Amino acid sequence: MNREALDTVERSMVRLRRGMSRQRLGKAAIREHNLPVDVQVLHVVDVVDEGPDRPGEEMSVGLVAARLGVDASRGSRIVAEAVKCGYIRRVASQEDGRRIHLELTDAGLAVVDATRRTRQEHFAKAMRDWTDEERAEFARLLARFVHTYEG
Fold first, then answer.
1. What phi, psi does 94 have (nearest 5°)?
2. How far, in Å, CA of 112 to CA of 58, rounded?
3. Closest-CA residue to 27 (of 9, 13, 43)
4. Are residues 48 and 102 in contact, defined by beta-carbon separation less than 8 angstroms?
5. DSSP 4-71
6. 83-113: burial string, b at 16+ Cβ within 10 Å, e else
7. In terms of Cα–Cα distance, which of 43, 59, 40 is closest to 51?
8. For residues 25 and 39, is the Cβ–Cβ distance under 8 A?
9. How many other CB atoms are found less than 10 A from the CB of residue 82?
10. Radius of gyration, CA atoms only, the chain
11. Measured over all CA atoms, what is the biggest interatomic distance in the chain, rounded to whole angstroms?
């Protein structure tokens, strides 16, 4: 493997992670769209919007907690806040009525839409000098990298 390329990818990913961990885009979405939502709740809404990992799986508090990298009790508190704010609702499972799963409300969908628009505007700005072909190739390679990395 080309050591220089690997070093560049590693350093770039660290910078990207640092930028994302500062929650820059989430805060920008909240500010730009005047969203009455906390950044942690915004993360929960994003995770629920992402959907389950496998067909037939339902979004649960445990899955939200795992994706956010928090323990179950912290995940439960953040989900409860998102429910209280009206962005997520708890619904009885179709598979087992004793279990619940999470789904977005109309207000949650509006938050998702606003947040996605903000992120896409920021990404478009970062790639404004790229050709359509470069953007398409970057999208293809990034999706491939993420799929392989998560796999």
1. -75, -25
2. 19
3. 43
4. yes
5. HHHHHHHHHHHHHHHHHHTTHHHHHHHHHTT----HHHHHHHHHHHH--SSTT----HHHHHHHHT--
6. bebebbbeeeeeeeeeeebbebbebbeebbe
7. 59
8. no
9. 28
10. 18
11. 54
Phi first, then psi, for residue 101 (nearest 5°) are -130, 170
Hey, is 82 helix, strand or coil?
Answer: helix
Query: pLDDT (tens digit, 9 = 90+) per residue, 53-75?
Result: 888 788 999 999 999 999 999 99
The dihedral of CA 44, 70, 76, 21: what is its sign? negative
Q: String of b and e for 57-79 (b: at least 16 CB within 10 Å)?
A: ebbbbebbbebbebeeeebeebb
pLDDT digits (tens, 9 = 90+) for 68-124: 999 999 999 999 999 999 999 999 877 776 788 999 999 999 999 988 888 898 899
Q: How far apart are CA 82 and CA 108, in angstroms?
A: 9
Residue 16: per-residue pLDDT: 82
pLDDT digits (tens, 9 = 90+) for 120-137: 988 999 999 999 999 999
